Amino acid sequence: MGGITVSEKKEFIHWFLKNYELQKKGTAFLLRYLSSDNELLRRVHFVDNVRSLGRSLIISTKCSDMPPFRFIKNKQVESDVETAFFDIKFSPNEDIYIGLYFKDRNSCPEYAAVLEGNPMEKQDLVQDKLLGLFAEILLDQAVLEFQRKQLYRQIDEALETGDKEVFMELSEKWLKILDAKK
To answer: How far apart are CA 80 and CA 71, in angstroms?
Structure first.
């Protein structure tokens, strides 16, 4: 991931802290700490959704209905800011994904400027597309198999009733199906 500079992230954090009041006071300290270290800030990624990401933070303002603070790492969820701080301090080489929740976040140009995509969402989209293609192939095969069986039954009926014209017509269709399989 990349593209957003350290200075852009730093400016955004300062703007954010100046314009919004956080539900949990310690989170402001944590954001200031992140913005004070350029190497750490390189590993910070603001994302819309922290789902399926390694080390992530959910931070909410007072104007949001979301939980005040969540630190997620290895599928463990903590609500203690100190735990997150010490993890970040002692593991500075791991990426940190931050989901901020505040009023009008979807229409905020400052937030949009630092927002990055969730790399796992791209993987999920590819997986969904592959599953969709697989489902289409299975459905096509099922339809063809149904049509083949129906044609086979109709040929049997034409033989039983002695309808030579229908038999010849259906036999041609049958041969075309066999040719298509080759």
So the answer is: 7
